[in-house]
Amino acid sequence: MQWTELIVFSALFLLVTVMGFLAARWQKGETLDHLDEWGLGGRKFGSWITWFLVGGDLYTAYTFVAVPALMFGAGALGFYALPYTVILYPIVFLPLVRMWSVSRVHGYVTPADFVKGRYGSHWLALLIAITGIVATMPYIALQLVGLEAVLRSMGLNGGGILGHLPLFIAFVILALYTYQSGLRAPALIAFVKDILIYLVILVAIVYLPAKFGGWGQIFDDAQAKFDATPSKADGILLTGTNQLQYATLALGSALALFLYPHSLTGILASRGRNVIKRNMVALPAYSLLLGLLALLGFVAISAGTKPIVNQATGRPDTNTIVPELFGANFPSWFAGIAFAAIGIGALVPAAIMSIAAANLWTRNVYKEYVKKNATPAEEAKQAKLASLVVKFGAVAFIVFVDPQFSIDLQLIGGVMILQTLPAVAIALYTRWFHVYGLIAGWVAGMGYGMWLLYTIGNPAIGKAHFAGSALPLGNISLFGWHPFGSSPTQIYVGIIALIVNLLVAVVVTLIAKKAGTFNGTDQTDPSDYHVDEDNPRVKPVAAH
Are 509 and 434 spatial neighbours (Cβ–Cβ below 8 Å)? Predict the structure, then answer.
């Protein structure tokens, strides 16, 4: 048991717990018994709050343990996270501003709300809602993976169900203050989380390289390690087989990230278009942090850090690389701060994700199919209960299922959420696609993407299926035809599935339009996409 680290960790955890409960009084509205207040913070967050909230939402605890772990195990491929977050903001700059405007006018809370309003189809909206909920669940579980890595490094996480007790206690506390305070809790805690993260990474990136001979020596040690492995795909430089994988994974991840419901939750909580614009300019500062963080994977190689062995599987858990690196090389008190930064970094996105999933359930399943005349207070209560179910479902997943499987599910989640791009993102600019085309495209892209993921195995870890998100071009077949021959070049499955989705959507749309079938009722107006917070025709959202 690392007592000094544990005391510092517990003190900072207690601090954010108190902040989480006090957040119910912060920027308080008339009542929290309304989905706009509980689930979107009253839609009145300014630039600074939005910056910390969205940053805390997108750069999660799992990011801070997984990216360096990937660099540690695979080398340069793990650096895909940097171009992915660089190209992300220019891609989503204009769509997010338009989404905020139309949501402000019509009182939309979820992307499925927008889809229903745009196409007048509750079935298409249901598909988008279910996709968002299913894709978000393993993402929440992955925050627990990051938190568990820290608990293991402090000696708090043993075998069996009782060994997960500290994790369970942490998420009970999270569930309670999220239930009480809603989105205001992670928004307020995000300030502490990001300050700690910046402090720890900046210290680590200066102190640790100096301790191990400088960056030149660190890169030499990393290259020596990868040269000694039998794999031809690792190394400090990309190879001919993984360059396409690197590019498509970065592009696919960028397209997918703001399709996740929790990403849109942070955006819709802001008070205006100008707030979003300023954040799209300022948020790339996190990319600089991420680039420095990723290099800690190479630092761990030079330091000779070894991951903790997972007692259940008998295999090293590379997610513990960064906590082990910090625990072995920082003074105990500062290692405690570093562990708290990662642990609190799990709470912020987990809270936002659970709120986003609860909003989807309440607005697009409960109110649409269970109780159409639900009052705002009933909606808020249903969302609070749903957020509890989602959180404890994620905890149960970690306790009773191999955590590595949740990582695989998150890869599947990325492929899944990409299939909502035509109905959500493209629909912001054109209503050319027919409802039938969008549904058919979703089915085709989802089905083909899941099939390709099913075919990906990894004998090294004993998995025959769902062992990754990239496959050789030579493995792609269309009814027995292999368009790329036997090419070993890897590509991200999500991009392939999205292309299939779009092609099918176009074909079915052309057929449906020629047949003259009904295409729903559009409730939006072109001027809806250009309103600002000061526009006199925009009423307070709570009045809708």
Answer: yes
